[in-house]
Amino acid sequence: MKKLVLQKFHKWIHIFRKKVSETMPTKKTWNHAIKLKEGFTLRKGKDYLLSREERGEMCEFIEEQ
């Protein structure tokens, strides 16, 4: 593994392992707050549509995590 990853990234080498790279990061207290600018109004965005196959793969991935 160390041959494939640049020397300057060796202190984070554990992140490049296959099992770690395929899991969702753990929830942190600081990763959910979004500070909005004063006067901001929320607008509804378009949904990202998935095919039936993509939805199945997404659900399977979420269940594994």
Primary descriptors:
0% strand, 65 residues, 2 helices, flat, mainly alpha
Draw up the topology in text.
Layout: H1 18-21, H2 52-64
Please count the helical segments. 2
Integer average pLDDT: 82
Whole-number radius of gyration? Answer: 18 Å
Binned, the helix content reads 25-40%
Largest sheet: none
The dominant shape is flat
- Class based on secondary structure composition and strand pairing: mainly alpha
* Oligomeric state of shown chains: single chain
Please tell me about this protein's structure.
This protein has 65 residues and is mainly alpha-helical. It has a domain at 1-23 and 49-65. The chain is 26% helix and 0% strand. It has helices at 18-21, 52-64. The protein is flat and about 50 Å long. The two termini are 24 Å apart. The model has no long low-confidence stretch (mean pLDDT 82).
Question: Quick summary of this structure?
Answer:
The chain has two helices and no strands.
